Amino acid sequence: INAHSFVDRKGSFQNILDAFHVGPVNEQWNFGKNERNLKYIECCLQNFPGFGVLGPEGDPISWIVMEQSCEMRMGYTVPKYRDKGYMKKISFHFIKYFIQKKMPFYFHVSRDEENLQALGSIGLKAAPCGWHQWETHS
């Protein structure tokens, strides 16, 4: 799979998310901000789908990246652009993509009320299970 996409300024998806965008993802991901996870994120961006939205200057402002376990993760929206429906649009695009490809997937989000409401608004439900941490090895 190599379907990295962003929504362009006109609201249509185009294939441009790649390892070049590793910086913003690494800076905003709770487990990022270090060289080890920078390499991990770069690998995810090179090998798995990532969808998002570009801002007026062409920089990513909202995104979700898939990990090797079919987990939608590393989702983030720049604070200035929140509450505009970007994450919902990206989530719908991801869901459509995976249904068309007949691929399993799931979203990993923090269990705060805002995230759980966002999942519910697109028809997803929280699973009553634990979470397992992946380890990266160099």
Characteristics of this structure?
6 strands; 138 residues; 4 helices; acyltransferase; Glycine_N-acyltransferase_C; 33% helix; alpha/beta; Aminopeptidase
Give a quick rundown of the structure.
By secondary structure, the protein is of the alpha/beta class. Helix content is 33%, strand content 20%. The protein is globular.
Would you mind describing this structure in some detail?
The chain has 138 residues and is an alpha/beta fold. It has a single domain, classed as Gcn5-related N-acetyltransferase (GNAT) (Aminopeptidase), CATH 3.40.630. It contains four helices and six strands. It has helices at residues 22-28, 35-47, 86-101, 113-121, and strands spanning 4-7, 13-14, 50-54, 60-66, 71-77, 106-107. It has a six-stranded mixed beta sheet, sandwiched between helices. A hairpin with a 5-residue loop joins strand 3 (50-54) and strand 4 (60-66). Helix 1 (22-28) crosses helix 2 (35-47). The radius of gyration is 14 Å and the shape is globular. Mean pLDDT is 76; it is low at 1-15.
Count of folded domains:
1
CATH topology: the name is Aminopeptidase
Count of runs of 4 or more consecutive helical residues: 4
Number of strands: 6
Itemize the secondary structure elements and their pairings.
Blueprint: E1 4-7, E2 13-14, H1 22-28, H2 35-47, E3 50-54, E4 60-66, E5 71-77, H3 86-101, E6 106-107, H4 113-121
Parallel strand pairs: 1-3, 5-6
Antiparallel strand pairs: 1-2, 3-4, 4-5
Pfam family, one: Gly_acyl_tr_C
InterPro entries: Acyl_CoA_acyltransferase, Glycine_N-acyltransferase, Glycine_N-acyltransferase_C, Glycine_N-acyltransferase_N
Domain Glycine N-acyltransferase N-terminal: 15-49
